[in-house]
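[audit] Reproducing an earlier prediction to check determinism. Same input, same settings, fresh worker. If the tokens differ from the archived copy the diff job will pick it up downstream; this log only records the rerun itself.
[audit] input (445 residues):
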Amino acid sequence: MARHLGHMLRTAVFALAFCSLALPALAAGVVRDPDIERALKEIAKPLITAAGLSPAQIKVLVVDDPNLNAFVVDSRHILIHSGLILKTKRAEELQAVIAHEVAHIANGHLSRRLTNLGTANTAARFGLLLALAVGAATGHPEAAAGVAIGTGSSATRVFLKHTRAEESSADQAALRYMAMRGIDPTAMADVLEYFRGQEVLSEYRQDPYVRTHPLSRDRIRAVEGYAAAYKDRAQENPAANYWFLRAQGKLSAFTRSPGWTLNRVRNDNSELGLMRQAIAYHRSSDKAKALTAINRLLAMKPGDPYYLELKGQIQLESRDFGGAANSYGAAANAAPSEPLILAGYGRALVAIGRHGEALGVLERARARDGTDPRMLRDLAVAYAKTGNNGMASLVTAERYAVLGNLKTAAIHAERAVGLLPRGSRGWNRAQDVLSAARAAGIERG
């Protein structure tokens, strides 16, 4: 599991609302893990289809933040704080959260605001809107890597904040989606109970959810009424519960202390118990016990690409680079279209010096998800090691652009422009980075 932390972004993306934004460098980032993302995809899929949308077009991502919040920044991304995933008690509660955010997308609540933002497309090209939203959702402007003009975090939160009318329509739509797919609608009322009474607290003490999703007694009563009307359509769904427990268990094992996890699963020989043991022992630097647990897990679930990926991560971070390449290679063979697994495989190949092979694997990963900064770093290394300094500079520029550091991105893009053939695909991509930098008011050096 990887955490990618944002950097300072000074941009005119939301020019009508504010001049620049401070994206916290330390407070929070996006957690990228193929197993967790697959689990969330499975949980969200029935709700996305119920809304008439395509599951292939919407990704559910986790923000590394213990506060409770969930939000959308565009029509393609739903972001949920890790704290909210760990807080929910059953799959239906997490599905209620996702259904509500899907409803905001389906009802066009945010897209109408985006139409007024002149440089939104340029920003989205590098994932900057996503980075901005993550920074705004943390509520920790003091952690910013520079001084913003104005109150950027507050301004972004205003942009993301829904009206009471939008919340009501999203609730109603979400409950319909849940009823259509046989998901217990009372779970939505249970989620709102987590926040009951918070509107009377000072903003500093509120969970971010309350600041972006206004609550009221009328809203809670309406949800309870709709839930009561639809509850007879609820059906058991063991698959959703399995994926929920798998995502929550892995997230918990990586974010809570190893001792806390082992106190609960040390003697648990179930599939998810062994997964959590492997992670906890790995985080305790006990490689032998971590490998014992993961090997027992793979004996139980042979060929599972996500458990193979976890074994590769354990080996790579324990500096068993050859073993990691073998495990990641097996995972990539089992899931050849999973970009995060391909990225891990490429990382392991770089570590053992197979740079030419790594280049091909990492380019496959980039083609499927070009917003993974760690993958872009490894891809730049592979290009440099194979003697293509122009492409190494280009990919480095794109990595800094994704992270929101457009000033440094422009420096590397200028270098790429000077090294790559004029008019080539790479040269044009470097020009895209420079265009994004100019849109943010950064002059070419």
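[audit] rerun output stored. Observation attached for the diff report: Strands lie at 2-5, 29-32, 59-63, 70-72, 77-81.
[audit] end
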